């Protein structure tokens, strides 16, 4: 008897799916790669280009990749800022930096995929130089002079030290020592003293900074000042009994209106039959101080 043997050959293909982001800073476009375990030559990547440019220039970067002989490389690029031009699968790309006014270094990252699920990445630093000339006229920090403790008027006189190279001064005024809310005053140099008027009573805080085209100085020291304005009292009026009244008691009870807008008032009272020759019956700082009435006995 002849026996027939059936040979069944089962081939297992081992692969994984790898998603690789396309051109740009993760633009959302993706392509699939199959990871081939039989590929033993992994890709490598170097980046070549100019490492220092002005901020009105662009740089051309080239990806120097090594992949297996049967592999087809694909590329994508990303950076911390600026913009790219060129194809997403190109090994050469042009990068334009953002507009800046100071020196900065950006890292351009390139990645190569070999078409079999293997990738390699490299970063290339590009230093961007400002096209503006270096600023040499650095402004110094002014010292704020003490305005005193308080004022009995509604104004405050302020002054500060002249700052080197200053073209403008910025003054802050606040009722909060942390300057959370503030009033801002701008003064062109060489002004270093000002008087602020119409200030309500209260405690104020002041500081100043000097500025020019290169920037601003640190804030000066903070000075505190109190406004204690004492407004004139209201003119007394509406006397009772009224002037020239008749049938008044020999011990009349006198009263009037008056008051003070920011405190209390002390009254001097005159009484008589001749308005040009009256008698004082109450002087200032009397025992009846601050009252707007009295009785004559």
Structural write-up:
The protein is mainly beta. The protein has three domains: 17-129, Immunoglobulin-like (Sandwich); 150-227, Immunoglobulins (Immunoglobulin-like), CATH 2.60.40.10; 231-297, no CATH class. Helices cover 0% and strands 40% of the residues. The protein contains no helices and 23 strands. The protein has strands at residues 17-21, 30-34, 44-48, 52-54, 59-66, 74-78, 83-85, 92-96, 104-113, 119-129, 150-151, 156-159, 168-174, 183-188, 193-196, 202-212, 215-216, 223-227, 237-240, 253-257, 269-271, 279-282, 293-295. Strands 11, 13, 14, 16, 17 and 18 form a six-stranded mixed beta sheet that branches. The N and C termini lie far apart (158 Å). Residues 1-35 have low confidence and may be disordered.
Query: Helical segment tally?
Result: 0
H/E topology pattern: EEEEEEEEEEEEEEEEEEEEEEE
What percent of residues adopt helix (DSSP H or I)? under 10%
Q: Which CATH class of the largest domain applies here?
A: Mainly Beta
SSE order and pairing:
Elements: E1 17-21, E2 30-34, E3 44-48, E4 52-54, E5 59-66, E6 74-78, E7 83-85, E8 92-96, E9 104-113, E10 119-129, E11 150-151, E12 156-159, E13 168-174, E14 183-188, E15 193-196, E16 202-212, E17 215-216, E18 223-227, E19 237-240, E20 253-257, E21 269-271, E22 279-282, E23 293-295
Parallel strand pairs: 4-10, 11-18
Antiparallel strand pairs: 1-2, 3-5, 5-8, 6-9, 7-8, 9-10, 12-15, 13-14, 13-16, 16-17, 16-18, 19-20, 20-23, 21-22
